[in-house]
Amino acid sequence: MLNMSQPTLSKHIISFEKELRLSLFERTGSAMRLTEAGNALLPFAYKILDAQSMFYEEARRIKSEAPARLSVTGLTDETVVMALLGRFITSAESEYGTGFIQVRSCHHKRPIDFVKAGSIDVAFDYFEPSELDDDTVGAVIVGRCPWAAIVDAGHPFANRASIDIEDLRHETLVRIEGAHVSEAWRFIERACLLNGFAPKTRRRYSMRLTDLLTLSSTIGNDVLIAGVNFVKRIEAGLPSSCRVIELTGEATSFPLSALYHIGNLNPALDRFIDFMEADLAEREHC
């Protein structure tokens, strides 16, 4: 009941008696009974235990009535995610108000790592829920982000309205590596393999959006694949020598999922998961 061994308990009692400078127990062999002083103090001990119980009960009540918070990170500026969060805020406004969602930066780390560490409620990233290999992490797919190709104005594709992924068979693709695009490449590679070829690549490391803009200005004969929403956000900063082309074909989109920790007891998270699952069911029905 006390979650400690008999020797440990005895040490605590002796230490307490020394602190009080009173003998609380009479010891006869292995038996113990309260002294006169112990009996006199016993009612106060019960009051202390009752007060402790009330203290923790009140702490739990305060915690349960604390303002709702839902922390999110990752690809929160994707159009699909912004629309989803907007609809959720509207649905939960009567209970939570409007300022309960907190958007946090990933600081060049993988969004899923924040979920696993329990430091974030929801992380949005490119993931197929069926591919998660961690039993502590759940996922709900919230949408798909179609691709576009960025090429130099001198590239043979530059004057085309769209290209098929099959057209990339003999092209060199820019493989960007960095925290904010950590999961993107594997979907690009998979799409190429599904279409019967392994992509030729040139690796570039990127930690900031400005790195991508610099890369675009020196893209040469290579092809950079990115999500359409992402391209729209950086399009104003792309050099005039670049062209953005629609990319079609099998599996040419990123699956965008909301990742969360299964053991997270945040009631706002529970409500958001229910909201996302209902939203997914409605989209699948349509």
TrEMBL record:
GO terms for cellular component: protein-DNA complex. The keyword Hydrolase does not apply. Keywords: DNA-binding, Transcription, Transcription regulation. It comes from the Bacteria. Residues 1-35 form the HTH lysR-type domain. GO terms for molecular function: DNA binding; DNA-binding transcription factor activity. Belongs to the LysR transcriptional regulatory family. This is LysR family transcriptional regulator. It comes from Gordonibacter urolithinfaciens.
